[in-house]
Design brief:
single chain; about 450 residues; alpha/beta; TIM Barrel; binds flavin mononucleotide; oxidoreductase activity, acting on paired donors, with incorporation or reduction of molecular oxygen
Length: about 450
């Protein structure tokens, strides 16, 4: 029997403070160089040395202005502000790597599907099939106002629109150009065969699109689809579309439940429960010995900004924790932000003090601290106890967090046979699932292929 390999993504964002806030003040941290190309190309090469499956790049439209009703903490601590566009990073990183995958976050609410389809096809061409898209619909009123709306579209309605958006994209990516449409026949003077390139016609509730996909088919056509919503509606969306799902459970019990519910829904949607890889967020502090790891953790705690973590969480939940005393009960009403984050906070009745304690390292992910064997044990325990397939490793001090992990933890995981020792060939989808470059036939997107359509 072969042991299942743990999957690994590095979790990052084109900004200074991503998940673990405050560490930009650490003398060895380089995150304030995020606006240089070198920061990203060196990071991509480092991750490829560690055989990471992917670099997952978060993104946000809008600012975190819920905490204390403004952006003071957000700006002082650089809590995902300033934030640059992640799209241009991918081609630069693809140019200096051969295998690393890229999970790009893009919010569909504020961009037309026709143009966005081309952006992703272009990146899939340039990276030779290493692109994934993290489908997000936004959770910030500040974004809605910046983009000309009075307030956000309601939570479930955002997913309804996303369903239709995906339908348009599948038609463009899977349906517009048949296999064999591109002939590149110099002698016959035929670049593309007109009989095999089709205009798509979509007239739905939210989108109307009539046209040919601008890009010729890229290696994966549809990029690997990632998603991160854990509400009921979010899980239904994931079950229908996602190939990779990100979760951030505060403990194993919650993690186990999310994984079980999700796999059930995937099966109900007519897919195989293993058609989706589930990644959870984790922060790791590792050093050669337990004592050194504890010292490093203590050193990191000295730079962390728990209040910045709280400002981030306020925006995620739509609740201004700045209005509450440390031990006041928090009024957890309905939210239009991240429903799953708010639900967990409400179920535990977390106060401001509870949250600040949880965010001692500046962020909300479970921190795993120890020597390499202890960290490897903890990761394997999470996989065994919750059923996740892998981890989204957040940075604490960058690039040190990733380098430590690669130098110290990866060899232990490899010795135990739970981590690859070389990359497989092929596209990101082929590497993750081993079943080819394209969406499997049972995925909804495949139903939009020309031959799958009724005549
Ligand atoms: C681990 C994780 C990462 C996420 N990353 C982003 C992101 O980069 N950008 C974004 O706009 N939303 C992000 N989200 C928010 C989700 O896309 C989604 O909007 C949110 O989870 C609300 O879904 P829900 O109410 O169904 O849980 C993330 C959520 C999770 C759990």
């Amino acid at each position: 029997m072969t042991t299942k390999h743990i999957l690994l993504n590095a979790f990052n964002m084109n900004c200074v403070g991503h998940i673990n806030h405050g560490h930009w003040t650490h003398p060895r941290d380089t995150s304030d160089q995020y606006h240089t190309l070198r920061y990203w190309t060196e990071l991509a090469q480092l991750l490829e040395r560690g055989l990471f499956d992917g670099l997952f790049i978060a993104d946000i439209v809008g600012v975190y202005d819920v905490y204390q009703g403004g952006v003071d903490v957000t700006l002082r601590e650089s809590v995902q502000l300033p934030v640059n566009d992640p799209v241009p990073l991918v081609s630069a990183m693809a140019a200096v790597t051969r295998h690393l995958g890229f999970g790009l976050t893009a919010n569909l609410t504020y961009q037309a599907p026709y143009l966005f389809a081309r952006t992703l096809s272009t990146l899939d061409h340039l990276s030779e099939g290493r692109v994934g898209w993290n489908i997000v619909t936004g959770y910030l009123d500040s974004a809605a106002r910046a983009m000309g709306l009075d307030e956000q579209i309601a939570h479930d309605e955002r997913y309804d629109r996303a369903d239709e958006y995906l339908e348009v994209l599948y038609k463009l990516w899977e349906g517009s150009w048949e296999d064999g449409a591109v002939r590149r026949d110099r002698q016959a003077r035929v670049y593309a065969d007109p009989s095999k390139v089709h205009k798509i016609r979509h007239a739905g509730r939210h989108y109307r699109v009539e046209g040919y996909h601008l890009s010729e088919p890229s290696p994966q056509r549809t990029p690997v689809l990632y998603q991160a919503g854990s509400s009921g509606r979010g899980q239904r969306f994931a079950a229908r579309h996602a190939e990779c799902v990100f979760i951030s459970p505060p403990n194993k019990e919650v993690g186990r439940k999310i994984v079980r519910d999700l796999r059930e829904q995937i099966a109900q949607a007519g897919r195989h429960p293993d058609d989706v890889k589930i990644f959870m967020g984790a922060a790791v502090v590792v050093a050669p010995t337990q004592a050194e790891a504890r010292d490093k953790h203590a050193e990191y705690l000295g730079h962390a900004a728990p209040e910045a973590g709280l400002a981030h969480f306020s925006a995620s939940t739509g609740i201004d924790y700045g209005r509450y005393g440390l031990d006041d009960p928090v009024g957890y009403g309905p939210t239009n932000a991240i429903e799953s984050a708010t639900r967990v906070a409400r179920e535990h009745n977390w106060t401001r003090r509870d949250l600040l304690a949880q965010f001692s390292l500046g962020g909300r992910y479970p921190a795993i601290v120890g020597d390499p064997a202890t960290v490897a044990d903890a990761l394997q325990d999470w996989v065994r106890d919750t059923g996740v397939d892998g981890f989204n490793l957040s940075r604490i001090v960058t690039p040190e967090s990733y380098a430590d992990f690669i130098d110290l933890v990866v060899p232990v995981l490899q010795d135990r046979g739970v981590y690859k020792t070389a990359y497989e060939a092929g596209t990101l989808r082929q590497k993750l699932f081993g079943q080819g470059d394209r969406l499997p036939a049972r995925h909804e997107g495949a139903h939009h292929r020309p031959l799958a359509r009724p005549a």
